[in-house]
Amino acid sequence: MTVIDVHTHVFPRIARREGGVLADSGQPWLRVDEGGTGMMMSGDDEYRPVGEALWDPARRLADMDAAGVDVQAVSSTPLMFGYSAEPGRAADWCDLVNERILAFCADAPDRLLPLCQVPLQDPALACDVASRAKADGHRGVHIGNHVGDRNLDDDGITAFLAYCAGLGLPVLAHPWDMLGADRMRGHMLPWLCGMPAETQLSILGLMLSGAFERIPESLRLCFCHGGGSFAFLLGRADNAWHRRDIVREGSPRPPSEYLDRFYVDSAVFDPRALRLLVDVMGADHVMLGTDYPFPLGELEPGATIRGCAGLDDAECALLLGGNAQVFFATAPAAADDLVTTEGSTP
């Protein structure tokens, strides 16, 4: 049984000077300290203490061996997205980050799958960067779930997703820059409450706006953290679609009829929650995700899956790796499927 973790993060060694590609101040960079510790930095400000697994591939591979993980999909830390920067500088920054992620994965290309990032604030540039990244060897795209007040159903972002479908490039969507942060002070509440809400907002936005009707069904799209609050509240959304025309005016089908259009990871940390998630999404649309190497992640990869009542061996195998093999399978782009974003609002 191949075990594939689709949700892991990296912050390659990027010096403050190099971070200046993105911005003159507040740029993300990595301070590496002694003893295998470091600090993610935002300009002069310390953002989060981290360990060497975030930038050292040898340490990561050792951790994977110890945990029985065969393959990780490696994506940037959301602090690195750079969506507020001038688009040209953001594109240059993404090229730098993507180059470093490739280098991080180069020593074990059969075990570390690189995911690129793109300047999503400019969908046309994002398409260019994604095309270059795929040509260079990236296996997917890692995006935030919004750019400022523009959600994933924004016309430009939707066009980018359609372009990724044409490229055959899978997309991993991660919540970030959480809504309502001014009311969620302390206790990591933005991560505990804001992240699930952000992800549910993204999924329902794609459904109720009709965006899924405009995106090719070939798009392979995964939402982190079990899809946030979505599975638990799907019944509420379906009920609203059937009872209120204002809910269904943009969508010809209720939310429950779009479940085959995306995947979610398994990072819900409770076998009972995972049981519900599998019941809602199907065993073929949930993949192992741990949020490694951060402390809020699943410290024993796959423990929730293996402890989930009612999953048979075949279903466990799908969640632990089989679905990810399908998700990251290489697929050639068909010229007729490529969608241009020219003329879309950046």
Task: Throw out a few tags for this protein.
12 helices; disordered C terminus; single chain; TIM Barrel; 346 residues; alpha/beta
Strand and helix layout:
Elements lengths: L3 E7 L5 H4 L8 E5 L4 E6 L2 E7 L5 H11 L3 E6 L10 H19 L6 E5 L6 H14 L3 E5 L1 E2 L2 E2 L3 H13 L3 E4 L14 H20 L2 H4 L6 E3 L6 H14 L1 H4 L14 E3 L5 H11 L4 E2 L15 H4 L6 H15 L19
Parallel strand pairs: 1-5, 5-6, 6-7, 7-10, 10-11, 11-12, 12-13
Antiparallel strand pairs: 2-3, 3-4, 8-9
Helix pairs in contact: 3-4, 4-5
Pathway: Secondary metabolite metabolism; quinolate metabolism
Enzyme class: lyase
Subunit structure: Monomer.
How many helix segments? 12
> Secondary-structure element sequence?
EHEEEHEHEHEEEHEHHEHHEHEHH
CATH H-tier superfamily = Metal-dependent hydrolases
Low-confidence stretches: 331-346
Q: Give the helix level as a range of percent.
A: 25-40%
Task: Tell me the domain tally.
Answer: 1
Order of strands across the biggest sheet?
Answer: 1-5-6-7-10-11-12-13
Description:
The protein contains twelve helices and 13 strands. It has helices at 16-19, 57-67, 87-105, 123-136, 155-167, 189-208, 211-214, 230-243, 245-248, 271-281, 303-306, 313-327; strands at residues 4-10, 28-32, 37-42, 45-51, 71-76, 112-116, 140-144, 146-147, 150-151, 171-174, 221-223, 263-265, 286-287. By secondary structure, the protein is α/β, with parallel strands linked by helices. The radius of gyration is 19 Å and the shape is globular. Strands 1-5-6-7-10-11-12-13 form an eight-stranded parallel β-sheet. The chain has a three-stranded antiparallel β-sheet with strand order 2-3-4. The chain has one domain: Metal-dependent hydrolases (TIM Barrel, Alpha-Beta Barrel), CATH 3.20.20. Helix 3 (87-105) runs parallel beside helix 4 and helix 4 (123-136) packs parallel to helix 5. The longest helix has 20 residues, at 189-208. Helix 3 links the parallel strand 5 (71-76) and strand 6 (112-116). Keywords: Decarboxylase, Lyase, Metal-binding, Zinc. It is an enzyme of class 4 (lyase). Monomer.
